[in-house]
Design goal:
heterotetramer, A alpha/beta, B alpha/beta, C mainly alpha, D mainly alpha, C: mainly alpha, D: 3 domains
Amino acid sequence: MGGLEHANWFMRVLFVAMGATIVTSVLLAQRGRAMFVRRIPGLTAIEEAVGRATEMGRPILFSPGLDGISIVTLQALAILAYIVRLAAERATRVIVALRASEVYPVAEEVVREACEAAGRPEAFRPQDVRFVAEEQFAYALGTVGIMAREQTATTFLFGGFYAEALILAENGRALGALQVAGCPDPVQIPFFIATCDYVVIGDEFYAASAYLTREPTLTGSLVGQDLVKAGLIALVLAGIGVATYLGQAANMDHNLLVRLLGGGG
Amino acid sequence: MGRPPGRADRSAQEAGGGFWGRMQGIPRYYIHLLLAGVVVWQLLAPISMPIAPSAATQGVYDAIAAVPDDKLIVISADWDASTQAETGPQTQAIVQACLREGKRFALMSLGAPMGIRLAHEIAQEAAREHGAEYGVDWCNWGYKYGYGNVLMALAKDIPRAVGSDFYGTPVAELPMMEGVTDIRGIGLVIEVTGLAAITEIWLGLIQGPYGTPLASAYTAVMAPGYYPYLDSGQMQGMLVGAKGAAEMEALVERPGKAVAVMNVQSWAHVLIIALIVIGNAGYVLAGRRRR
Amino acid sequence: MNPDAYVLWAAAIATLGVYTILYRENPISRLFEHIFVGLSAGYLLVITWTLNLEAKWWQPMVAERRWWWVFAPVAGGLFYFIFSRRLSWLARLVMGLFFGAGAGTFFRQFFPIYAPQFYACFKPLRPDAELPWSQVLLHHWMFVIILLTVLSYFFFSVSHEGRAGRALGRASLLGRWFMMIAFGAMFGNTVMARVSLFIGRMRFLLTDWLGSFIPWFAGRGL
Amino acid sequence: MLRLFQPATHQGVLVAALAGALVLSIALLYCLHRFLGPRQRRRLIAAVTFVAGLFYGLEYFYPAREGRNFLTPWIEPVSTMLAVIGAFTVGLGIYSLCQVHGRNVAQRRSGWHNSAAFFGAMAAMLVFGLWDYYLRLPEPQPQVLPWPKAVYAILFGGLYAPLQAATFSLLAFYIASAAYRAFRIRSAEAALMMAAAFVVMLGQVPVGAWLTGFIPLDSAWAFFRLEVLGDWIMRWLNMPAQRGIVFGIAVGALAMSLRIWLSLERGTFFSEGT
């Protein structure tokens, strides 16, 4: 092993190439280049889910998962902003249940601004952005309590979830809520599929804000991401080619691509 | 991803009436009650489920049975309290198998200074049961610091590399060590571990160079990573988590803790599978009636 | 004072109290929920002080006289400006610091996390002395096909129309199916771990608690 | 400049330095607030974000000799500093909790006694937790504990830990009811999911091995023994699918990180306002 504590030249080049591809495609989109995004059904369902809460006159519950301020949480909050905007237009409450106190101020600001952006600053209720508990299962139990007492009609679970995912989703389901969930980590997805009405898996989570807002910057980024993925697939195919040529025994030690990525003997 | 499989069956009404319709919408607290009932019942009054050893477990037992009488088995107990729930019963079952087959064994530890005492107690109890004597039928070389260095020395000169045993007696003075001077005196190494990367040392320094057979026992989380060695024949067998321990207990016909837990697990799994089958039967049959 | 008996009874009552939620949310489960949330809030304050602030901030600042640690509460205090309309931009300033650190942390984790998974995909696709054809087909070819079809599902900017688009659409449908198999497998693989948690709790209730006053339970040897 | 950052020589200097630094930083913040227009504020925030990200990223990517470069020594102190700054937000979470439950108690809303229990539990844990921490006893601990330690033992071992374990173990029940409900052969996808779950579940328990135990281990059909098949599904169907998902996530998260770092992110909160 070795070579992973700091980058080697190959990683530097690869990283810059990936970053440049994404940023270039963002800049092109900002300059007005039209970009296509295919339909992502789980995300289309968000509007339906908000509508259901409005119809029933009951609040919505949103959980951004357990993570502190991380990339996953920031993406979850971007989805929250969209949901609050929709809900504020329809005078529906969104209760945000939080686990990390450093996320609390960010979430509060996101909700307040989304209400303002919807033209309804009075819809912002500070007491609906709630810190529940730091401990994983206290958070789960507390959030289930909020669902039951507030009779939430819709549950949104977007963010970094772990074992508590099934506790939240199974109880939400027992209360008859319509549930939409999304988590980049595949481990909890099976349990979301078993308990939620719509599930956003893997990278769809990161495509969400682009898909929902159609903001050129974000759709541009999505196109850039696809190009990067295509590049990585080409690299995998090249690696497989070399491995096939070398054969099983020699592969890990002599495959140049493995060594460039910090592996091998 | 769109609507996943799983919406509907909010209630039995949605699924249509009738017996099979109701079977599709069993309220969840009945399911919870059933599960709790099965677990408590099986803990208090177990009805044993059949345990058929897997190939990997059978491999460990066969490897123990195949050790020539003039050679030792080395059990490397590289685990401590953190993985005791799985590795403890595994060690116990392996020790039982050695005693049952009348093989002499030596405990040692490369990676767990705190764990060797736990393994020692397990071996002591099993030895008492079989009337086996310390120093004659089994011994404990203790924790040896140095990983690969220990093994390289061990291969050349066991009494020197090991030095003194768990009690501080020089191992050369133990009756069972007579004639066991180097790696040729060892007929099998069994690595029981919850720690990564120790198996690789045994493979690289003992099994590879000298062809000494190797078997192992891992926690369920670790096991999948070691299957390739089983496939390639570098390992004779492997115990996987509590399941492997239970299978081994069944092979030595001494059902213990692992069998008890796996018995409860078996019943719980059977219950869940039965529930899935009933739900699907309801779905198919109620649907047919409506058409 | 020896608290063992109180600990045992409190633990048993708390465990049973939580289990009432299995029927439905009710006054008892609600009480224990609030106690749990309260304890966890108190515990959060305790460990924030004892593990974090006292050791990493107070001690260096006061005992070691590193006076510049006084800037930490000032920066942390900026978060509290979130409640003020006029000053909330200052809260954003310190949030920006954390956002940037979050992004930078991801940059440095990118290769250490993903590179090993990446080169582990380089599997030989022809049999040789060490690799019988059955393994090449059942393991390596399977691996590569699933990897590629699943990846094809995550292309969002390509339309599933036109000849190439339809091919991609078919591949991504296949990828979805493979993902469903994977999710089912993960589900099945988790059941045992979850049931174990309950077995552990039941052992506590039956042997430790009931067994403490009904010897029959203690004698079951669980 | 760096010479200024030396530990104070004695207590008096320390107090003066603390007070001075406090006044100075407040003055700085006041000036920033007073003299920066909305656009400059945005630029300042973007600059802070960029520098913070650059620091962590550059340390990894900048050429290193023997595992170190000019930024490496700073990683640990800066991370500690951020952890400490973040720890000060703990008050925000507690404030939010107290606000919700305080209102319940003050207005005697239905279930206010639960909120009172919340306050009681929090206060008890805070008081006895700190008391226990500062009541350092020599090892081994005495047989009879002083009463504050005993109370803490009840709070932690009798309530906190068992509540945690009991809540975690609820998953055993929820996984059973979720399996019953979700695994229906409603569509091809649901059927595939169910089949995989079935085989893997059976492969894990002895009863599965018993069911297909009639297949000889050394025959060509051994592959279809449930424990072998289950293992094959986990390793050669599940693993590559997870890899595929993970690669997608890696790229998605990379793009998100880049947008945050360069302040390119758009949408409510991330672009509008000051």
